[in-house]
TrEMBL record:
Bilayer-spanning residue ranges: 21-46, 66-98, 110-130
Taxonomic superkingdom: Eukaryota
Keyword Iron attached: no
Listed name of the protein: EamA domain-containing protein
Keywords: Membrane, Transmembrane, Transmembrane helix
Native source organism of the sequence: Pocillopora meandrina
InterPro entries per the UniProt record, alphabetical: Solute_c_fam_35_mem_F3/F4
UniProt keyword Transmembrane, yes or no: yes
Amino acid sequence: MHCGSKVFFKKTVGDAILGQVSLTLSCLGLLTTFLLWPLLVIFQFTECERASLSDLPWEYLCGTRALALVFHSLMIFGITSTSTLFISLGAMISILLNSLMDHVFRDSEFGLLKIIATIFIIIGFLLLLIPLSREKKATK
């Protein structure tokens, strides 16, 4: 779930319990799996995408899935026990941490464009934290 979908989930469901959030994310994962599976079969038969199981980078795929499981488990816990503000803040910080990990492990550049984009994301997030009453006063 991205930051916008967490806010939508919170508005539509309200204060959900752990079981509701787990069921929703499980259904979302199953739906994604069943909808994407036919595309993979079509790509294999039409030979648009040629890939064999031995060509796949299994170490990276298993590591990514394990980290995604931890992320989603922590997100479920965060949605049910804290505010969505903390979850959104964590997602925003993960952008910086992903860029740092890319720099450390892949020697990718953290150029000026990424720095400016990160600053804009942080400013946008901080602007969303302004209470509605102060926003109305500022626009008058």
